[in-house]
Specification:
142 residues, mainly alpha, 7 helices
């Protein structure tokens, strides 16, 4: 499944979503690992976002992010950020997986201490989650 996933990713990046989806749909005889299957789900969600500009993508990206939590924390956080972007982009047109639902799921993920240095996407995700779930802080006047 590794080669098919890489080929599907290349087709997606080259602007051939149909070819990418057909590669992902091809039945595989080998028993690929959970991370490969989760990455395939993520790619399907990314293709849905590219094709429909977010309409069907938020719940697909949310499910992929949840699946990746235990497998690859960095990729899961990036996927939550993609899910938030899709949910905000689709707004009322989204078929489930609104921004609040995605933000609450990302917040509930319980990442724990990161062995990696904090990256810009991590800060963006944390800030966006906080803004969506708690809103702006009250204005202080001095």
């Amino acid at each position: 499944m590794g080669r098919a996933l890489a080929a599907a990713q290349a087709n997606h990046q080259a602007g051939a979503p149909g070819a990418a989806l057909s590669l992902l749909a091809t039945p595989r005889q080998d028993r690929s690992d959970e991370l490969q299957r989760a990455r395939a789900d993520l790619l399907r969600a990314q293709i849905a976002f590219a094709m429909s500009r977010g309409r069907d993508a938020p719940p697909l990206l949310l499910n992929a992010a949840k699946r990746l939590e235990a497998l690859d924390v960095r990729l899961a956080r990036e996927t939550y950020l993609d899910a938030l972007t899709a949910a905000v982009s689709a707004h009322r047109l989204a078929s489930g997986g609104g921004a609040l639902e995605v933000a609450q799921a990302a917040r509930a993920a319980g990442w724990g201490p990161s062995p990696h240095p904090v990256r810009a996407p991590d800060l963006l995700l944390d800030g966006w989650v906080l803004l969506i779930t708690e809103g702006y802080a009250p204005e202080h006047r001095y």
